[in-house]
């Protein structure tokens, strides 16, 4: 499978995660919305990396790889990389808490996050997803022109 096909599939996963975050927000499951927003952001970053042929470590946090590969991206996308990487660095520590809660303090995940947390996480994820979607489209257009 080509990198572009893999990237498109990752982006579909990102979109599903974003829709799940929206549903969780509607259901007032703010921790789930945060977790799904993080999934969306992670899949979006990995789609961008896959699109330019970068093999990333099999970890959740790969924003350092995105930053180090910035020269492989178009100038307009490079301008977004710091924002995307900061969003990822912000959401990664929340991933475990949003899933399991604070097990040391016996605080359930549902008590650790509020609507504002969910909205902020979803906004970061949505913006990143949209930029990577534009990146994929730009690569598809360039590919068609070369044929």
Give a quick set of tags describing it.
single chain, 147 residues, mainly alpha, Four Helix Bundle (Hemerythrin (Met), subunit A), 75% helix
Describe this structure as you would to a colleague.
- The protein has 147 residues and is an all-alpha fold.
- It has a single domain (3-146), classed as Nucleotidyltransferases  domain 2 (Four Helix Bundle (Hemerythrin (Met), subunit A), Up-down Bundle), CATH 1.20.120.
- It is built from five helices and no strands.
- It has helices at 3-26, 30-51, 63-68, 75-100, 115-146.
- Helix 1 (3-26) runs antiparallel to helix 2 (30-51).
- The two termini are 19 Å apart.
Secondary structure elements and pairings:
Layout (H helix, E strand, L loop, with lengths): L2 H24 L3 H22 L11 H6 L6 H26 L14 H32 L1
Task: Please tell me the CATH architecture by its name.
Answer: Up-down Bundle
CATH topology: Four Helix Bundle (Hemerythrin (Met), subunit A)
Q: What overall form do the CA principal axes indicate?
A: elongated
**Can you summarize the main beta sheet?**
none
- What is the CATH C level class, in words? Mainly Alpha
Summary, kept brief:
The chain is mainly alpha-helical and 147 residues long. The chain contains five helices and no strands.
């Amino acid at each position: 499978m080509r990198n572009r096909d893999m990237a498109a599939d990752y982006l579909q996963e990102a979109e599903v995660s974003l829709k799940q975050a929206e549903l969780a927000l509607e259901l007032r499951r703010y921790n789930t919305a945060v977790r799904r927003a993080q999934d969306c952001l992670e899949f979006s970053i990995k789609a961008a990396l896959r699109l330019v042929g970068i093999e990333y470590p099999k970890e959740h946090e790969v924003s350092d790889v995105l930053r180090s590969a910035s020269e492989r991206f178009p100038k307009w996308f490079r301008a977004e990389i710091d924002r995307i990487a900061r969003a990822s660095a912000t959401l990664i520590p929340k991933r475990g808490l949003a899933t399991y809660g604070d097990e040391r303090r016996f605080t359930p995940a549902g008590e650790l996050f509020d609507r504002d947390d969910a909205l902020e996480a979803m906004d970061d994820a949505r913006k990143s997803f949209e930029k990577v979607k534009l990146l994929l489209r730009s690569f598809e257009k360039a590919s068609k022109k070369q044929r």
